[in-house]
Design brief:
The protein has 371 residues and is of the alpha/beta class. The chain contains 12 helices and 15 strands. The protein is globular.
Length: 371
């Protein structure tokens, strides 16, 4: 069998993820492997946790990367805290809210859905009213940046209501972390997970996670074993904590990459990074509106790093996306679920959030329309 050396095209990644990666991250991934219990590696683990706390804006002791993509973070967040029959309130206004429901139901939770139309937020009042009617709920869960619709969900009012109650506040920040404000402690978030392949601009494969002391107390009081060995935080925290108890072989090169990706964010400055995403996100919206696109998401609650657009009649979908990829090496995303064939999802995440990328994409679209 003659399998040739791997050669892949160089793309400008402007879809919903993954994003492009800095040469600095690629370089550290070629660093020689050391053992996952090597003292030098243990120091690296501590540095990663320290930078993740800074990014999550939290003092939570348990702030670690889970081995697996953002979906592993979602599974970890539910599987460690739900026992059969537990009541869970979940906000659903897109595909990833629906995925939360699927995960919770597989764990035999009693799920209360709070729904809104795709492209709209769920009003905080609606989530709070649902909790008032279900004060025995163990978890209230919602997506901060709904990747399927481009909607930025307000969290502060919900968090303020939950803070002094027993219910745990669980938030998906897979797309938002590193691209817009996430304030875990200030917003009263108890369980928060993300992914590396979006605004952190690290390859997919890790899911940063942080849990509050309130959530950890709930975990310790479980009556049944966590329904996953691999994602069991009662064991994972022993490896990431002072004990350094072996659980599984950590993805060493990916953790090198995450450390460098976080260093890049710290070098830029977290607030500067948010400002860059906001400024260029606004510019992309303007350029696309000038081309005849319309925003799919509520303009008052649209994400800076992921823009969802309904395309004009002159745009043929998916032919246009395929031509952008094959002729210009630009990737943009199509719709998912209810929006398949109806919207584009254009990402400006991390390394991909560059003025030159916006200008190149806009000119490419104009050329394809003209020809």
């Amino acid at each position: 069998m003659d399998i040739k050396e791997l050669v892949v095209p160089e793309r400008i990644l402007m879809g919903p993820g993954p994003s492009n990666i800095s040469y600095r991250v690629l370089k550290v991934m070629a660093t020689p492997i050391i053992g996952h219990l090597d003292p030098a590696f243990l120091d690296i683990m501590d540095e990663i946790c320290q930078m993740l706390r800074e990014l999550f804006k939290t003092k939570n002791l348990i702030t670690i990367p889970i081995s697996g993509t953002g979906s592993a973070g979602m599974e970890t967040s539910f599987v460690n805290f739900i026992e059969p029959g537990d009541k869970v309130i979940i906000g659903v206004c897109g595909l990833f809210g629906e995925r939360m429901v699927d995960v919770a139901e597989r764990l035999k939770a009693n799920v209360v859905k709070v729904e809104s139309n795709w492209g709209e937020i769920i009003s905080p009042e609606k989530m709070i009213d649902a909790l008032k009617r279900n004060l025995d709920a163990k978890i209230l869960a919602i997506v901060h940046a709904e990747t399927s619709t481009g909607v930025a969900q307000p969290l502060e009012e919900i968090g303020d209501f939950i803070k002094d109650r027993d219910t745990l506040f669980l938030v998906d920040t897979v797309t938002s972390l590193g691209g817009m404000e996430v304030k875990v402690d200030e917003w009263g978030i108890d369980i928060c997970y993300s992914g590396t392949q979006k605004c952190l601009s690290v390859p997919p494969g890790l899911s940063p996670l942080t849990i509050s002391s309130k959530a950890y107390d709930v975990l310790k009081k479980r009556k049944t074993k966590v329904n996953s060995w691999y994602l069991d935080l009662t064991m994972l925290t022993r490896y990431w904590g002072k004990e350094r108890f072996y659980h599984h072989t950590a993805p060493i090169s990916m953790l090198f990459a995450l450390r460098e990706g976080l260093r890049i964010i710290m070098d830029e400055g977290v607030e500067n990074r948010y400002a860059r995403h906001k400024k260029l996100g606004d510019l992309l919206k303007k350029e696309f509106l000038d081309l005849g696109f319309t925003l799919f998401s509520d303009p008052n609650h649209s994400l800076p790093m992921l823009n969802a657009f309904k395309f004009p009649l002159k745009i043929k979908e998916p032919e246009m996306r395929q031509r952008l990829l094959s002729e210009y090496d630009i990737e943009v995303g199509g719709g998912l679920g209810k929006t398949k064939g109806k919207i584009w999802r254009v990402g400006l995440m991390g390394e991909s959030c560059r003025l030159k990328n916006i200008l190149y994409l806009v000119e490419a679209i104009k050329e394809i329309i003209a020809n």
